[in-house]
Design brief:
The chain has about 600 residues and is an all-alpha fold. It has three domains: about 130 residues, Serine Threonine Protein Phosphatase 5, Tetratricopeptide repeat, CATH 1.25.40; about 220 residues, Serine Threonine Protein Phosphatase 5, Tetratricopeptide repeat, CATH 1.25.40; about 170 residues, Serine Threonine Protein Phosphatase 5, Tetratricopeptide repeat (Alpha Horseshoe). It starts with a helix and ends in a 6-residue tail after the last helix.
């Protein structure tokens, strides 16, 4: 019995106890054995509940079995801490991590505790956790090895919350490593931190460093937003053009640059290729602000017919856009289209004073003293400026303005989707990959980080693509991580066969290969059972059992396979063993077995 206990074969131990009690009247097992068995089974149930993300059950089991919550079983403490946080009791989770650092001495476990806490706790509580750090005995601190990763994580958190002030020591650490290691991702991280706080000087410095080291969508978006805020939309448009289609955020940033560029006063001289590509994108996205600015731009070139078409196009996309309606009215008035002006005034009666009083005041163009809204801002009605429309035409042909002047674009324009893009980060945090980008444009390292981030957001299909890009890394640890991650992503997506193929794309460690094999066999067993292929299910379960002790839920699955195959003795043996652990599914299985054997007694 002690041997069964030491091997974790608890169901068999219960049966051995029952058999001996039946054979020897009055025999009772040692109380020490029963107590240890109870704790061991509670530990197993807690781990299963944690793996299944049944966090309330984890907390309940931890509270009812305090003997589990000791430094000798640090994994259980970690699981309970996570369960507290996942059930909106972050303070209790923080207390659990603090308990470990106050009472447990193993250096590796203390370091892992801080890493686990940092993945779940926000910045401020983490400062209390880090205050429990001890000297390492070598003139350093015990968490020095992860100091840089923590600093990156905290700065990234500051990117998501502009009101969160990160300690200067963390910023200095990221700046130090950005300069010493030369990673573009660190420069991007700093750029977004300063941009969120409108520190445009430092933001531009770091975005330019990132852009020069490895041009990316994140670096270009950040730099473009800085340039827009600094009144340099022409450079912003040029920086963002190649990245305009990688995501909705990239498109929004590019369009914001175009709107600000076309709104410059006095208008800048733009080549036909630039005008053409801007017009093409504006038409494709049905972007009203730039279409409207094209109208004013055409008027500045004394091209009223082109201006008319652009204002009409903008109104077709957004009929309640008052600045476009005003531009259309002004242009029709210039062309002496009195009826057209009257029609607009009638449509906008009571909604626009300047349209109603068009013939009483001189026409005005939009103000250009401040940038147009960035992608995360609502587009207000364009204010009127005091400057007159220039009467002298620019030396440019009418055709240069008509590249996109039609209104036949089919792509819907969604203003609510325009928002400032979040920074992509190396740390495995959900918020760092909330936007959609083309993973093929990333480096293998960035793609690997994005893959794990997407897994945290439960977006396995996108993670699969990211891990595929990471496979481009040379043979080594990164390639192994990519194959491992892609296999997990396929498993989460329910594509078991694909997961098996992904696991062969790179040599995996024995532990990882075994872990994936166990998961793949479990998934195949579940799929076969769902398809009522019970013999096949048993084959997969037997193969899995050779690698890892069978979980209670899979024992229940085995029991029902036996039941459906009319192997009633085997079904009874399994369900009895499961029921002996206190598992309700075991009792339910015994009930179903009795109904199958005695259908006349179903009542």
């Amino acid at each position: 019995m002690w041997q069964l206990y030491s091997e974790g074969r608890y169901a068999e131990l219960h049966k051995a106890i029952t058999d001996r009690q039946a054979a020897e009247s009055g025999w009772q097992p040692p109380s020490d054995l029963l107590e240890r068995l109870e704790v061991a089974e509670a530990r197993t149930r807690l781990i299963n509940a944690s793996d299944l993300k049944q966090y309330a059950t984890v907390v309940e089991l931890g509270a009812s079995t305090p003997s589990l919550l000791t430094c000798s079983d640090i994994d259980i403490l970690w699981r309970v801490a996570e369960a507290f946080i996942r059930t909106d009791r972050a303070d209790r989770g923080q207390d659990t991590y603090a308990y470990i650092l106050k009472n447990c001495a193993n250096p590796q476990e203390r370091l892992a505790t801080v890493q686990k806490a940092a993945a779940l706790l926000p910045y401020q509580p983490m400062q209390d956790i880090l205050a429990l750090e001890k000297p390492d005995g070598n003139s350093g601190r015990e968490f020095d090895s992860i100091r840089t990763d923590l600093a990156r994580r905290f700065v990234a958190e500051g990117n998501d919350d502009p009101k969160l002030d990160i300690a200067p020591t963390y910023l200095a650490e990221v700046e130090r490593v950005a300069q010493s290691q030369g990673l573009a991702s660190d420069a991007v991280l700093l750029g977004w931190y300063y941009l969120r706080r409108q520190n445009y000087g430092d933001a531009e410095k770091w975005f330019r460093i990132a852009h020069d080291k490895g041009d990316s969508a994140a670096a270009s978006q950040g730099l473009a937003l800085v340039l827009i805020a600094d009144g340099k939309p022409q450079e912003a448009e040029d920086v963002m053009y190649k990245w305009r289609g990688v995501s909705k955020d990239a498109t929004a940033t590019y369009l914001a640059a175009t709107a600000n560029l076309m709104a410059l006063q006095p208008p800048v001289a733009l080549g036909e290729n630039v005008l053409s590509r801007i017009a093409t994108e504006v038409i494709a996205q049905k972007y009203v602000p730039t279409a409207q600015q094209f109208g004013w731009f055409a008027r500045s070139l004394n091209q009223p017919q082109t201006a008319l078409r652009w204002f009409e196009t903008a109104l077709n996309w957004k009929p309640d856009d008052e600045p476009s309606a005003y531009g259309l009215a002004v242009t029709r008035n210039q062309l002496n289209d009195r009826q057209g002006v009257a029609d607009i005034q009638r449509l906008w009666a009571g909604r626009s004073e300047r349209i109603a009083r068009l013939n009483e005041v001189k026409p005005q163009v939009p103000a250009s003293s401040a940038p147009l809204p960035l992608p995360n801002q609502a587009v207000p009605q364009t204010a009127a400026a005091s400057s007159q429309v220039p009467a002298t035409p620019r030396a440019r042909s009418e055709t240069s303005m008509t590249a996109g002047g039609g209104s036949s674009a089919q792509i819907e324009y969604g203003q609510s989707e325009r928002r400032t893009p979040p920074v992509r980060r190396n740390a495995r945090q959900p918020r760092g990959c909330s936007t959609t980008i083309n993973s093929q444009l990333l480096t293998p390292g960035d793609a690997l980080s994005r893959g794990w981030c997407l897994m945290d957001l439960n977006r396995p299909m996108e993670a699969i693509a990211a891990f595929e890009t990471a496979m481009n890394a040379p043979a080594g640890k990164m390639r192994e991580d990519a194959a491992y991650g892609q296999s997990l992503a396929y498993l989460r997506a329910g594509l078991t066969n694909n997961a098996a193929v992904a696991a062969t794309k790179a040599p995996l460690s024995h532990q990882r290969a075994a872990e994936l094999q166990v998961a793949i066999l479990a998934n195949r067993a579940l799929s076969a059972f769902t398809a009522k292929r019970y013999q096949e299910t048993l084959i997969y379960l037997d193969q899995r059992a050779q690698l890892q002790q069978e979980r209670l839920d899979l024992m229940v699955l085995r029991g029902y396979c036996y039941l459906n195959l009319k192997m009633y003795d085997d079904a009874e043996r399994i369900f009895t063993a499961v029921a002996a652990t206190g598992n309700k599914d075991g009792n339910r299985g015994l009930t179903d077995l009795r109904l199958a054997l005695h259908p006349d007694h179903s009542e």
